[in-house]
Specification:
This protein is of the alpha+beta class. Helix content is 22%, strand content 37%. It is built from four helices and twelve strands; from the N terminus they run αβαβαββββββββββα. A hairpin with a 5-residue loop joins β7 and β8. It is globular, with a radius of gyration of 16 Å. The chain starts with a helix and ends with a helix. 27% of the residues are buried.
């Protein structure tokens, strides 16, 4: 119910025993999948990697398989790239067909000193679809947003993406994270209850 969603936390740390190794594997995967990402002029880019990417190593595949055993099939794996001094406006992740509630977010590169904020909002929203096929929702009235939580992504975390959130990178370097969407969203809600 909507009452329950208001009471849910915005994020919760997910401990990964070999996080630095997973981060390195993810960085290698984005380098192999989209090497130009490190030379492009970036403000905010999204790079979706196939769930069955051949760039996966045994370590990464094992990590992802264990998560799938607990939370159902992996539906989407995406690298989110925010350029130096970059920001993205408050948004809700999802498409007109599917609105995930929770994603696993893993810091990959230059996440220290960057911020993710979540907002309460009581107005209408607008569906956006970009030329590249990315879909999301934005508020119709930005003045009605009220910040309710802010964190720095230094450890992997389960994060709500069904309420408005934004990223701010005040650094002079490009920030990269990787997000995972799993099928069993109801089980993930229990983690943030």
């Amino acid at each position: 119910s909507s009452n329950r969603s208001i009471k849910m936390k915005c994020f919760s740390v997910h401990n990964i025993d070999n996080q630095s190794q997973i981060q390195e594997e993810l960085l290698n995967q984005i380098k192999e999948t989209r090497p130009s990402i490190f030379t492009e002029d970036i403000t905010h880019k999204v790079v979706t990697v196939s769930v069955n990417s051949t760039a996966s190593t045994a370590i990464l595949k094992n990590f992802e398989d264990k998560l799938s055993e607990s939370f159902g099939p992996l539906l989407n794996k995406t690298f989110w790239i925010t350029g130096p001094k970059g920001t993205n406006r408050p948004h809700i992740d999802g498409t007109s067909q599917f609105l995930p509630k929770i994603k696993l977010m893993i810091p990959v590169l230059n996440c220290q000193g960057t911020y993710t904020s979540w907002f309460n909002y009581s107005g209408g929203r607008e569906h956006i679809k970009t030329d590249t096929g990315l879909e999301y929702f934005v508020p119709k009235d930005y003045d009605r947003l009220n910040s309710i939580a802010t964190t720095t992504l230094t450890d992997a975390m389960w994060a709500r993406v069904d309420i408005f959130h934004s990223v701010f990178n005040p650094r002079n370097s490009t920030r990269i994270i990787c997000s995972y969407v799993f099928e069993n969203q109801d089980k993930l809600i229990e983690l943030l209850a």
